[in-house]
Amino acid sequence: MKRILSLSYDDLPSHLRTCLLYLSVFPEGYEIGKDRLIRIWIAEDLIQCEKQGESLFEIGERYFYELIDRGMIQPVYKRWYYDMTENCRVHNMVFELICYLSCKQNFVSILDHVHHTFPSKEIIQRLSLQNCMVDHATHRATMSMQEVRSVVVFPSAVNILPALASFRVIRVLDLQSCCLSQGYSLKYLENLVDLRYLGLRDTGISQLSREIGKLQFLQTLDVTGNEISSLPSTVVELKHLMCLRIDSWTRAPCGIGSFTSLEELSTLCIQDSTDLIEDLGNQTELRVLGIDCHTGWNFKRFEKSLVECLHKLQKIHTLSISVVGECKLDAWVAPPHLRSLEITGCCSSTLSAWLNPLLLQELSFLSIEVRKIRQEDLEILGSLPALVYLDVEVGNQNHGILRRLVFHDCSFPCLVHCVLRGYIGPVAFQQGAMVKLERLHLAIPVLETREIAGGFEFGLGNLPVLQDVTFLLRRGGAGEGEVEEAERALRRAIEMHPNHPTLEIL
């Protein structure tokens, strides 16, 4: 089996072989985050720019998916979103091979309860600490950290991580999920002047030192999952920063507009002014953006600034906006490369103004709130060619629909998961609509459905691959008998469906 897998490995281009070997830093069976992996590849210079203007991350994504296509790694999908690979795993046979090759080539040195792969000369280039065993003390005493380029530490091994002062040329320091609130210190972090990747996610820290501004080559900083109330102002001195991940409760300093290479920023909290939004407008390389806004101070000014900012961000493909207050995005036109859009708290008056199916050929995830939804809006959504996940909430009862919404033939050709919430009216699914739909969550106004549609027949039998259905009955004004009638009709429709999908009525 090793010989067979070796043939597949040898058939890889040299750059993919190197990227694959790097996966040996993770434990066997570990679920590896796609974005985390690609950012580390970039920090290690394992990804080379192929043409001017192309993002290193996009090249890394190509590497990642090519390894999947060649069967060297296994994709892990979101449970409810089948078209998006968030993570990957390495099959145990492939894992054994790359661990063997990593040791043979002195590519990665591993410490865990199974592997003790250390080079004979004890010169370590990449160090993976996976398990804190007593008999590792001897190894640690003889390890030289002078040439270590990359250190990835897992929670059970944080106690054997050498002091940061031991490292001289380190580029990657990944301590994700290691508890640093007690014990291990980040003292001398500012001395790691070659550091490109700093992963401190879920480490229990409560602050970052002002000295972090000295890490002039830092490309990725991830401090999510901690109780950090604010970032030091020196963060804006990190001129090469490409990815900044913080929590929505972590205040970012003014001056974010000084970054020149920023591609990912999430989640930025905007509370008391539009200065941060105006800074964002200068980040024209942004591909991923998440913002959490509080607009009580001046929502009209905020709305204008946000729309102006979004118009400038034409490379955005993942956008998440959460607003506490009042905001409309009717003046915005979604950019053509958008793949994922999630907007909560903003109620748009109409979808036709900013969703153009002819431009949005890549949009696969959409979660939005609207004041009302009309048949023409539904047809716009149904024309999005790549849409896999849809969540629409109609937010105002005064704009309720007075007629049935019809999902026509050939609409929503790729949709797998559909959620229709809020003050949605009666619906009907025609033959040929939503041919790939597996999960449906539907709010049903009992009285309106009886009065407008004359009953509770929605055409569920026209959804050929339906597997899971959730109905939320809006009982407002309906008697107990009418609610029971609705429940009986819905259960009967599910029983008659050829797939016999699971049913939950709320």
UniProtKB/TrEMBL annotation:
Which biological process annotations from GO are given for this protein?
A: defense response to bacterium; innate immune response-activating signaling pathway; plant-type hypersensitive response
What are the residue boundaries of the Disease resistance R13L4/SHOC-2-like LRR domain, all occurrences included?
148-503
Keyword Cell cycle on this protein? no
- Swiss-Prot/TrEMBL keywords: Plant defense, Repeat
Q: Does the keyword Coiled coil apply?
A: no
Highest taxon of the source? Eukaryota
| Boundaries of every Disease resistance protein winged helix domain copy | 25-98
| Family matches, as PANTHER family | DISEASE RESISTANCE PROTEIN RP, OS12G0273300 PROTEIN
Protein name stated in the entry: NB-ARC domain-containing protein
Q: From what organism does this protein derive?
A: Setaria italica (Foxtail millet)
Lineage here is:
Eukaryota, Viridiplantae, Streptophyta, Embryophyta, Tracheophyta
